[in-house]
């Protein structure tokens, strides 16, 4: 059994919001995803990934903004981790 | 007043909004050929990649330059980079963005090797993780990074990948390496002699080279030595901001500084996209020396003294 991981970054905290960034990591070794390898999102929304069998395993918290830092932006905010478990032959 | 062809206000707004300006085939072929000769040939495949790169740099005619010297003193007169930096269009754009007499920060010869080198020398042929150069940078102004492509770059050769509009995010270098792909990302596929002017904050990375030849890009980072205020062609700056209706709009409005600053990128989150607009307004205020500038009322609403 091996894990495939899909990370979707959505336009807001809702799982049915549009995808704005994405990453795939493949524990089976069958593919080698890497930075810049795909200009088209694999799923239009997080819900579309659920419909295709991906299991949501983590969602970013919605955190309050500390006073004085309200306008400072850093990392993408709405991060969702999904997994698929894949049977592999020993 | 400068005799150089300075950037106009719309191009400056594009740089403030998106963090880049692209000058296709602006460097003549003669300078491109001179640069490639000065840079030197890559060794043949066979050695480990670190050794291959080390030999390439050791054999290069590009000088080692310490940071902090005047950019004008960094390159020998008549060398390819000296000639490039003195092209009027290039010198005018540099002056518009960082002002006169910029300071040399660093340079690097980025060579991306094709699969044959990895097959012969080991290692994995992969793209570079997306990153923001240097360190977390909370300053109002910016450094300029010039990416020079001395030969044609095709899509199989990879090209520099960059994400327009990411330059105002305060991140720590490669901490964002997790993001493989971002909506709106661009890959530098270009003709020989193309320059990409980047705000130092733009997220970027080198693309993997699947072609049969090396890909060469030369990067120069420079710092302003004087305030970056009102350095572009001020004749093109309207005296009064172009106030325009917001939200309830019936017809397409002409392109202005304000409309450019208020154009979102495909990767913008729905809430923080508005903060990106505000941060663009702040950068325009800094560069224009106008602390009251606003676009689409985003800052004015928050700064209403009656609400203080």
Amount of beta strand of chain B: 5-15%
Largest sheet of chain B: 5 strands, antiparallel
Strand numbers in spatial order across the main sheet of chain B:
1-7-3-9-2
- Report the C-alpha radius of gyration of chain B, rounded: 21 Å
Uncertain stretches of 5 or more adjacent residues of chain A = none
In helices, the fraction of residues of chain A equals: under 10%
From the helix content, strand content and strand pairing of chain B, which structural class follows? alpha+beta
What's the rounded overall pLDDT mean of chain B?
A: 95
What is the number of helices of chain A? 1
Chain oligomer state: heterodimer
Biggest sheet strand order of chain A reads 2-1-4-3
Sheet having the most strands of chain A: 4 strands, antiparallel
How is the CATH topology of the largest domain in chain B named?
A: Jelly Rolls
The CATH class of the largest domain in chain B: Mainly Beta
Annotated CATH architecture of the largest domain in chain B: Sandwich
């Amino acid at each position: 059994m091996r894990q495939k991981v899909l990370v979707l970054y959505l336009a807001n905290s809702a799982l049915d919001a549009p995808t704005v960034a994405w990453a795939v990591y493949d524990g089976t070794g069958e593919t080698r995803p890497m930075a810049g390898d795909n200009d088209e999102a694999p799923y239009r929304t997080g819900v579309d990934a659920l419909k295709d069998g991906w299991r949501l395993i983590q969602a970013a918290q919605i955190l309050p903004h500390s006073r004085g830092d309200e306008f400072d932006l850093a990392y993408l905010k709405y991060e969702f981790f999904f997994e698929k478990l894949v049977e592999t032959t020993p | 007043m400068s005799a150089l062809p300075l950037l106009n206000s719309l191009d400056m707004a594009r740089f403030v909004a998106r963090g880049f300006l692209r000058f296709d085939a602006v460097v003549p072929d003669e300078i491109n050929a001179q640069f490639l000769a000065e840079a030197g040939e890559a060794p043949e495949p066979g050695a480990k990649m670190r050794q291959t790169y080390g030999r390439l740099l050791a054999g290069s005619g590009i000088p080692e330059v310490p940071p902090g010297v005047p950019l004008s003193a960094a390159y020998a007169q008549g060398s390819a980079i000296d000639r490039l930096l003195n092209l009027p269009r290039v010198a005018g754009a540099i002056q518009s963005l960082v002002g006169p007499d910029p300071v040399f920060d660093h340079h690097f010869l980025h060579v991306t090797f094709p699969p044959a080198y990895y097959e012969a020398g080991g290692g994995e042929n992969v793209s570079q993780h997306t990153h923001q150069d240097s360190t977390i940078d909370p300053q109002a102004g910016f450094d300029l990074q010039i990416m020079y492509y001395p030969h044609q770059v095709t899509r199989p050769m990879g090209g520099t990948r960059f994400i327009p509009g990411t330059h105002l995010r305060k991140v720590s270098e490669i901490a964002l390496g997790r993001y493989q792909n971002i909506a709106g990302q661009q890959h530098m596929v270009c003709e020989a002699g193309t320059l990409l002017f980047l705000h130092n904050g733009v997220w970027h990375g080198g693309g993997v080279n699947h072609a049969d030849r090396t890909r060469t890009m030369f990067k120069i980072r420079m710092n302003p030595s004087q305030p970056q205020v009102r350095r572009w062609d001020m004749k093109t700056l309207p005296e009064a901001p172009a106030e325009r209706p917001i939200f309830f709009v019936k017809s397409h409005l002409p392109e202005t500084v304000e409309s450019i600053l208020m154009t979102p990128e495909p990767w913008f989150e729905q809430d923080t996209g508005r903060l990106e607009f505000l941060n663009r307004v702040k950068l325009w205020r800094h560069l224009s020396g106008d602390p009251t500038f606003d676009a689409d009322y985003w800052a004015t609403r928050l700064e209403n003294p009656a609400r203080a």
